[in-house]
Amino acid sequence: MYPHERSLVNRLANQPFVLLGINSDGDREKLKETIAAEQIDWRSWWDKSPTGPIQTEWQVTQRPTIHLLDADGIIRYKNVEEHELDEAVDTLIEELAGKPSR
Q1: Which pLDDT does position 102 carry in this prediction?
Q2: Does 66 reside within a domain?
Q3: How does the average pLDDT of the chain come out, rounded?
Q4: 76 near 88, Cβ under 8 Å?
Q5: Residue 72 neighbours by CB distance under 10 Å
Q6: Are 49 and 24 in contact (CB under 8 A)?
Q7: Type and span of the H or E element at 74
């Protein structure tokens, strides 16, 4: 999953796109090693456990879980991966480009 996420971050570097990660691994030191080894350079939070406050609030029941939010903060897609994820992100960016400024 990390290589695909990294490709999205790189491909959309100059677009209105942000990738945020939440991790629930119990071992924070191991998580730091994974972040370094996988070259994760997007913002990521540690939620301590699968029942942490972020995952509870967002009703995460499987891992990985992907939520795509639009510019208004509305969840528009859930649990899309790979090709479908690219299409969904591109759709939201295209919609935003056609949206009048506020």
Answers
A1: 46
A2: yes
A3: 90
A4: yes
A5: 9
A6: yes
A7: none
